[in-house]
């Protein structure tokens, strides 16, 4: 079967430039970012830049409640995959906290059909590759999968491959979903028919 091109292999930086106006009034700062990067990594920006939205027509998105320093780090991450700037220790917590605030808020608001976009296996894999054991964002992803996972999340070959390449997540998920039976032990022999072949 022919290989299917992946989104990550598409040509980058060939799209239009979007202006992010961050902060309020004279303290606002403008950032100029390629549209494809914004839409690839953020469901918020992807939705805001759909043709029917005003932001899509003006090629400008106002973020009055956000802090320029935080958005600056986000833009660094979009283009480089890491944050180079030496920043105060508190910002290392403020940045992921701001991302978590926005992420959870966007999930809480269902789509027009009532469904919610929780996360993708690709996002999960990237986060686990770039975070440490026990980090809050890992705990968040485990909670989503332990509570809301669906079979179709694990059907595509690409998703299955990514999950198998992420053993730390699978172990975290297994730990989070260990059943807590009412009785300390049940006879395995009495339940054996569950595991026998039909003859």
TrEMBL record:
Listed SUPFAM superfamilies: POZ domain
A Pfam family per the record: BTB
Residue ranges constituting the BTB domain according to the UniProt record: 16-87
Entry superkingdom: Eukaryota
Signal peptide: none
Protein name: BTB domain-containing protein
Organism listed in the record: Cercospora kikuchii
Species classification: Eukaryota, Fungi, Dikarya, Ascomycota, Pezizomycotina
């Amino acid at each position: 079967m022919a290989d299917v091109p992946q989104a990550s292999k598409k040509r980058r930086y060939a799209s239009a430039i979007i202006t992010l106006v961050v902060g309020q009034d004279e303290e606002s700062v403008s950032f100029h970012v390629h549209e494809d990067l914004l839409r690839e990594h953020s469901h918020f920006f992807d939705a805001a830049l759909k043709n029917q939205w005003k932001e899509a027509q003006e090629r400008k998105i106002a973020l009055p409640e956000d802090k320029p320093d935080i958005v600056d780090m986000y833009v660094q991450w979009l283009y480089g995959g890491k944050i180079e700037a030496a920043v105060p220790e508190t910002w290392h917590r403020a940045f992921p906290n701001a991302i978590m605030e926005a992420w959870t808020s966007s999930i809480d608001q269902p789509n027009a059909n009532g469904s919610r976009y929780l996360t993708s296996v690709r996002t999960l894999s990237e986060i686990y590759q770039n975070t440490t054991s026990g980090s809050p964002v890992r705990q968040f992803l485990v909670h989503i999968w332990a509570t809301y996972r669906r079979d179709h999340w694990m059907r595509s070959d690409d998703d299955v491959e990514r999950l198998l390449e992420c053993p730390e997540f699978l172990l975290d998920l297994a730990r989070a979903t260990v059943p807590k039976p009412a009785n300390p032990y049940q006879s395995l022999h009495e339940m054996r028919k569950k595991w026998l072949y039909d003859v």
